[in-house]
Structures are given as C-alpha cells and as structure tokens.
Write a structure and sequence with these properties.
- The complex is a heterodimer.
- Helices cover 0% and strands 53% of the residues of chain A.
- Chain A is mostly beta strands.
- The mean pLDDT of chain A is 95.
- Chain B contains no helices and eleven strands.
- In chain B, strands 2, 4, 5, 9, 10 and 11 form a six-stranded mixed beta sheet that branches.
- The model of chain B has no long low-confidence stretch (mean pLDDT 92).
- Chain B starts with a strand and ends with a strand.
- Classes of the chains: A mainly beta, B mainly beta.
- Chains A and B meet through strand 4, strand 5, strand 9 and strand 10 of A and strand 4, strand 5 and strand 10 of B.
Chain lengths: 113, 114
C-alpha cells in the first residue's frame, strides 16, 4: 500500500506570493489533516478534512486554506506569503474513527524569501 | 498551545545504551502516542498506549503511562546509531463533529553515537 504522498517536496517563494501544496492520502483513508512545523512553534495543527468537509481548523489566519476532493486528495493554500510562513508542512491521513495513529507524508519544505 | 512537553530536549548517548524520554500532558486523554522524525522528514508512528494501559512494549521500545501524574515515558533499549532522530509524544483531541487532531510536544532530539 502506497504511503502518504506530498508534492512538492521543496519550494522557494517570495513574500506576497501564494503557494499550493498537495497531499494524496493512503488509499481508503478519508481523513486528511495538515500540520505546520517550525523550530519556534513546533508542530501545530492547521486543519482536518473528511469527505470533502473541513471538520476543524487550528489557530491560523485566513490566508491558510485548504480543500479536499472526492478522491480524498487534499490541497492547502497559503496566500500573501510572509517570512514566518517558512516551515515544513506535513500532511497526515487516518484510517478510521477507531484508529488513533496518523500516517504522515514526508512534508513540503517551504522557504519564503 | 503544546499539550505534551518532553524532557530532556536533547539527549546524547553511546550506542548500546538505553535512552529514556519523558512526556507530560495537561488534560485527560484517551490515548497517548509517540512518533519519531528523522531530520527534516515526516513523522513515523511508533506506539500508542491507551489510558487504561500502564505499559506497552514494541520491539526495543517500552512505553509507560501514568494518568494520575499525566506523564508518559519512552524507553529505547540497546540503542543504535539509526535511532538518532527526534521523538515526539502526542495526545489526541476529538470534537463532537468527529474532528480528530493531535497535539504534539516539542520533542526530544536523540543522538546515538557509534
């Protein structure tokens, strides 16, 4: 079974630009969540999607958005990039309500110049 | 805010030694999980211990949970250079809408010297 796939792995943007990151969950997993990891704030929850619906969102500004498609693939978008958005963005999928573990992708490393 | 807080923040040991990492959390939990992250990579789930369990083993890993103290420990026995990584504890939060998220501690960076 293929794992969680995130693209792109690395990208460099400049302030004010926008970026879209993609995540393909493990086949059959309907829950996809996103986390931001920075040296200063650690791992922080961004949002979770299930069956194309956002079920929860973390404490991030409206510049951070996402969506999920009918095949469970998810994208997140960050508009009007700021230097502080530089981070490793991790996507995770979950198999079902009775399972606790998350399966993470390798992440997308975003650098904002 | 961080639910789990690990200590130590960094740990350096010789290959073959045991490594112990501790985690404290603040609210009541259904389970507690440990994850590993190699430098700049994704997180890998190591072990999940439920709130009604006190100890759990998986290979060279041993996890304990003390719900009265709101703390957990991860023991890696007979460490190897390949165990060099950051280790995070995580606690889940579920909402009535079915939402599920993990709150992570800041992690322990383990270095195993060959």
């Amino acid at each position: 079974k293929a794992g969680v796939t995130q693209t792109p792995r690395y990208l460099i943007k400049t302030r004010g630009q926008q970026v879209t990151l993609s995540c393909s969950p493990i086949s059959g997993h309907r829950s996809v969540s996103w986390y931001q990891q920075t040296p200063g704030q650690g791992l922080q929850f961004l949002f979770e999607y299930f069956s194309e619906t956002q079920r929860n969102k973390g404490n991030f500004p409206g510049r951070f958005s996402g969506r999920q498609f009918s095949n469970s693939r998810s994208e997140m978008n960050v508009s009007t990039l700021e230097l502080g958005d530089s981070a490793l963005y991790l996507c995770a999928s979950r198999g079902g309500a009775n399972t606790g573990e998350l399966f993470f992708g390798e992440g997308s490393r975003l650098t904002v110049l | 805010s961080q639910q789990g807080e690990e200590d130590p923040q960094a740990l350096s040991i010789q290959e073959g030694e045991n490594a112990t990492m501790n985690c404290s959390y603040k609210t009541s939990i259904n389970n507690l999980q440990w994850y590993r992250q190699n430098s700049g990579r994704g997180l890998v789930h190591l072990i999940l211990i439920r709130s009604n369990e006190r100890e759990k083993h998986s290979g060279r890993l041993r996890v304990t949970l003390d719900t009265s103290k709101k703390s957990s420990s991860l023991l890696i026995t007979a460490s190897r250079a390949a165990d060099t990584a950051s280790y995070f504890c995580a606690t889940p939060r579920e909402s009535g809408a079915g939402s599920y998220q993990l709150t992570f501690g800041k992690g322990t960076k383990l270095s195993v010297i060959p």
